[in-house]
């Protein structure tokens, strides 16, 4: 029985490492294809956005999370459910704006940066910008779903 449990853990670790290495190869290729880091950052955000638009359906189907009542609850679901489900981490939520409409997610252990060393000539590259795009795309789709349901 413990062998099966170990296989599941090993499989998740291998999948995580494969994703990390594949992501690194993707960023490397983007750095070769575009002349500056700003363009690479834009492409990572755009790709992440497209992933988020599609990923939200999978998240809603698999997580059985109900409707959030406020933005703080939304932040909790993102940090404690979504990041855990897809990346195996739980970021901390900090830096709430006075109006309560902005916050920061702090990743203590970002799985995307395993095995990564950025060269000095890419100091303005936002390596994990894909995650920002994923969040933006998913939240935009939730907003659209909410307005569609209320119409």
Would you mind describing this structure in some detail?
The protein has 4 helices and 2 strands. Helices cover 65% and strands 4% of the residues. The protein has a single domain (16-114, 127-149), classed as Trafficking protein particle complex subunit 3 (Muramoyl-pentapeptide Carboxypeptidase, domain 2, 2-Layer Sandwich), CATH 3.30.1380. The longest helix has 32 residues, at 2-33. With 151 residues, it is mainly alpha-helical. The radius of gyration is 17 Å and the shape is globular. The mean pLDDT is 86. Strands 1-2 form a two-stranded antiparallel sheet.
Basic shape: globular
Q: Work out the helix count.
A: 4
User: Helicity level, as a percent range?
Assistant: 55-70%
Strand content: under 5%
The N- and C-terminal alpha carbons lie at a distance of: 51 Å
What's the CATH H-level homologous superfamily? Answer: Trafficking protein particle complex subunit 3
Structural class: mainly alpha
CATH secondary-structure class: Alpha Beta
Low-confidence stretches: none
Overall average pLDDT: 86
Radius of gyration: 17 Å
Strand order of the largest sheet: 1-2
CATH topology heading: Muramoyl-pentapeptide Carboxypeptidase, domain 2
Give the number of domains: 1
Strand segment tally: 2
Provide the succession of SSEs.
HHHEEH
Main beta sheet: strand number and arrangement?
2 strands, antiparallel
Q: Would you identify the CATH architecture?
A: 2-Layer Sandwich
């Amino acid at each position: 029985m413990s062998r099966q449990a170990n296989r599941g853990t090993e499989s998740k670790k291998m999948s995580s490492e494969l994703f990390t290495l594949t992501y690194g190869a993707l960023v490397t290729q983007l750095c070769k294809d575009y002349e500056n880091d700003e363009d690479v950052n834009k492409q990572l955000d755009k790709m992440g956005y497209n992933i988020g638009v599609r990923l939200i359906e999978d998240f809603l189907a698999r997580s059985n999370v109900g409707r959030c009542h406020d933005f703080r609850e939304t932040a909790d679901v993102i940090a404690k459910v979504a990041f855990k489900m897809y990346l195996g981490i739980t970021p901390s939520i900090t830096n709430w704006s006075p109006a309560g409409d902005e916050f920061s997610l702090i990743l203590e252990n970002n799985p995307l940066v395993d095995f990564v060393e950025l060269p000095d000539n890419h100091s303005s590259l936002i390596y994990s910008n894909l995650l920002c795009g994923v969040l933006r795309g998913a939240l935009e789709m939730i907003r659209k779903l909410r307005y569609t349901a209320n119409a």
